[in-house]
Amino acid sequence: MSARSLRHYEDEGLILPGRIGNGYRDYCRSTIDRVLIIRSLLESGLPVRLIREVLPRLADGAGGGTGAPCAEFVQEVQSYRDRLAARIAELSAQQSALDAYLREARRPDR
């Protein structure tokens, strides 16, 4: 994990590291665990805005301590996934239109 990423997470309000006497940041085990959760959620494509909203519930053990995500979080993720799928469909349609144009432009009888 780069120092830049850690500072970014701090600036976004995702983590709050402690400070030692000389002003250096101190990352306790719970902060490190939280960073691992953040990284996992970012790698899955979730935006920081959504992570910021749901992270307190995930980190506080919401969901009865079973590790299962709460229904609200699942609904938010599904909504984000649906918006992403719609964007992908839109881009795929644009790509198909461009492919058709290029096929037509390359026809030898033109």
UniProtKB/TrEMBL annotation:
It holds the Pfam family MerR_1. It comes from the Bacteria. The keyword Transcription regulation does not apply. Keywords: DNA-binding. The keyword DNA-binding applies. This is DNA-binding transcriptional MerR regulator. It comes from Nocardiopsis composta. One of its GO terms (molecular function) is DNA binding. PANTHER family: HTH MERR-TYPE DOMAIN-CONTAINING PROTEIN, REDOX-CYCLING DRUG-SENSING TRANSCRIPTIONAL ACTIVATOR SOXR. Gene3D superfamilies: 1.10.1660.10. Residues 1-57 form the HTH merR-type domain.
